[in-house]
UniProtKB/TrEMBL annotation:
Biological process (GO), any one: cobalamin biosynthetic process
Keywords from the UniProt entry: Chaperone, Hydrolase, Nucleotide-binding
Name used for this protein in its record: Metal chaperone YciC
Organism expressing this protein natively: Devosia equisanguinis
Source lineage: Bacteria, Pseudomonadati, Pseudomonadota, Alphaproteobacteria, Hyphomicrobiales
Recorded family membership: Belongs to the SIMIBI class G3E GTPase family. ZNG1 subfamily.
Length: 352
């Protein structure tokens, strides 16, 4: 019997640093190792794949990257994930490792369970589930906006769904993990980091390792090659959602996303300030995309996680490529799409 292909599942909330970690992993994986990458994103712009495809690492060529963008991977297991795996496994060239980056809103449990489907169980196994946690978001208390109220409710009835959607999802992602990476340590002071780590530790199964990192810089040897066969241990990785809904299909009604395109903008500083104002005014959780800055030969990659907006020129515009500004916006439902679009359109030039 040939050895099963190890697969690393990378999960973690919106903007925690999953793509940054994958980028680091591809750049530092042993040369000659062939890695297939399955990228699942919430929102239809394909920003993560575009960022990863641009890094030009030999370990993962563009044709080895598959994007699953029809919703979160946990809801599209049968229709998308299994066929994608089967197609990867049917290729003539064999992969040494598979890496799956889930969307920030995905529950890992249905994906882990899918590795027990006979269609793929004979050929692949989960090497480890890695959950990336955003130290800055946790320090700012972004997962439990009103902790006092949540605790009061919890005291009244232990069985009900009392967590905020964000907190619950995060706990599901922690409970699924074989390893936690506490990322963005550069944004948090040591005392707060200690507190964040203690809070995370309280949610973990015994033996789950915690690694601290900035920009996903972790030892790749520790990340790839954990040998956990996590799919065999799914019973020990409970999910709030599955417990409460008897395993029924998980919907993402709690969250909403849309994308928009601006034909022209006034300028870089104005755009970034407008994005920052919009995020604060409308509680946007995540915004990302690319912008066409007047006079710039390169496109501007924009990343906003909560109130923090960053931007960098990631590559020159390609000949014939439409120079437009495209953004994806993600937040808790209901998002006031019209008001958000109107707010972002303030960065367009005023017609003469
Ligand atoms: N300061 C700081 N920024 C980071 C760190 N890791 C990632 N970022 C930034 O955080 C933003 C989001 O990072 P991503 O890697 O795209 O996060 P993600 O989890 O893949 O995001 P989604 O796929 O949208 O859920 C980007 O602007 C990154 O550059 C870190 O350790 N420190």
């Amino acid at each position: 019997m040939t050895a099963k292909i190890p697969t690393t599942v990378i999960t973690g909330f919106l903007g925690a640093g999953k793509t940054t970690l994958v980028r680091h992993m591809l750049a530092h994986a042993p040369k000659g190792k062939r890695i297939a990458l399955i990228i699942n994103e919430f929102g239809d712009l394909g920003v993560d794949k575009d960022i990863l495809a641009g890094c030009g690492d030999e370990t993962c060529r563009e044709e080895d990257m598959v994007e699953l963008s029809n919703g979160c991977i946990c809801c599209t297991v049968a229709d998308e994930f299994i066929p994608t795996m089967q197609a990867l496994l049917a290729r003539d060239e064999k992969f040494d490792h598979i890496v799956i980056e889930t969307s920030g809103l995905a529950l890992p449990q249905p994906l882990i369970r899918a590795f027990n489907w006979p269609e793929i169980k004979a050929q692949v196994t989960i090497d480890g589930v890695v959950t990336v946690a955003d130290a800055a978001a946790l320090a700012e208390g972004r997962f439990a906006s009103d902790e006092a109220a949540v605790d009061a409710q919890r005291r009244q009835d232990e069985m009900l769904d009392h967590e905020t959607p964000l907190g619950e999802l995060f706990e599901d992602q922690l409970s699924a993990a074989d390893m936690i990476i506490i990322n963005k340590t550069d944004l948090v002071d040591p005392a707060m980091l200690e507190k964040v780590e203690q809070n995370i530790r309280a949610e973990l199964r015994p033996g789950v390792g915690i690694v601290r990192a900035a920009n996903g810089h972790v030892d790749i040897a520790a990340l790839l090659g954990m040998g956990m066969s996590s799919e065999d241990d799914i019973a020990n990785r409970p999910s709030h959602h599955e417990l409460e809904h008897g395993g029924e299909t998980h919907e993402h009604d709690d969250f909403d996303s849309f994308s928009l395109t601006l034909d022209a903008i006034k300028g870089k500083d104005d755009l970034l300030a407008t994005i920052e104002d919009t995020i604060k005014a409308h509680d946007v959780l995540r915004l990302k995309g690319f912008a066409a800055i007047p006079g710039a030969a390169a496109r501007l990659a924009i990343q906003a996680v909560g109130p923090r907006v960053t931007a960098y020129f990631d590559r020159p515009w390609k000949p014939g490529e439409a120079k437009v500004t495209s953004l994806v916006v993600i937040g808790e439902s209901p998002l006031d799409r019209d008001a958000i679009v109107e707010s972002l359109r303030r960065s367009e030039p005023v017609p003469a």
